[in-house]
What does this fold into?
Amino acid sequence: MPDTPPSVPDFTHWPSFPFEGDLRVKRLDDPVPVEPPRKGEAHRECTACQAPDDAYIWVGERWRVRAMDRPTGLPMVLILESRSHLDLGDLPNLLAAELGVMTVRLERAIRSLDGVARVHVNRWGDGSAHLHMWFLARPYGRLQLRGTFLSLWDSILPPISEEKWRENLALVAAWLAEFGGRPLAEPPRIQWQAPSSLAAQSAPAKGEPTEGGSLLDAIGETAEPPDAPGGVVEPATEAPATTPSAEAAEALPPQRSIPEQEAGSDAEEVPAEPEELPTEEADAATPTGPTAGSKKATSGPQA
It folds into this structure.
């Protein structure tokens, strides 16, 4: 007797479901007797432990925050990691209490960006044994992106511009640095070169937009990445920039980047007693940054 395929669940009719047309449910595989080890388990190398600090946008004494390697469809996708090789259920009370403070602090920093309505906080943990929390920003006004399918939409939407992406990274890093740690993300450099003519200024840019990365490929926690399609992608050509004269270059102020702040102590919210987090100290641990609903457009967080 042939197997009767299960009916398509009701969520395929939700407005937030990113696909349409005829769908069918995959056949469920038989369970395996022993699950394969994750990264950082058994003899598998932990990529988080091997990553240097300069691969992150902000680093502290016990926590680090990193981004994707290139822009994606959402305004911001960040990952909070512990320095120690621990999973969520392995955290001692001291780090468990600080994880709550860091989660709230990073959520506020991302939500302060222009155009961000909500921040989804996720933890999957099927690909790596090293604790990592995902923070996904939903664009303001995009009601179709609400709910549990936001990670799928991040791989479907066209990537945001790299200039805006780097600006957002620098703002979040500066916000976190107000409470300690060291910011490593810098804003994009100012494009001060003038066009050679008005025609060049009004001409559309050549080449296709840069293709963004995939959040699902980066997670890699539930399935192997699909085979890449054949063929070679030609790189996009860029219009040559006009080189200014020596006199004009000397008249321009030198470009400067945000200086690195000295590594501060981010343990001010850590409870005095390692076994419990008293109410008074939990209240004191609340970040003193901007209010949750504020939107900022400056280059750093408000004190």
About this structure: The CA atoms of residues 217 and 224 lie 8 Å apart. The chain has eight helices and six strands. Helices lie at 47-50, 93-111, 150-156, 162-177, 198-202, 215-219, 246-251, 279-284. The longest helix spans residues 93-111.
